[in-house]
Model the fold of this input.
Amino acid sequence: MERFRQYQRSAFEQITAEWPAGERLEFARLMVKYVESQDALRTRVRRTPPADTRADPPAPGDPGVVRFDASV
Done:
């Protein structure tokens, strides 16, 4: 993981070397915001229960298994 971080840091420095300092800071700030938002989304998705995709509610005694005929 440390090698990956070093590579990312080096790439950032090389790519943005000629950018004005303000643009480098703004890019870094937005990248951090993006990564934090990605992490928050991943956490939200993990906590969201899967949706019931059937059109009709299960009938009494229905085991809740939906089977699809692939030959159709």
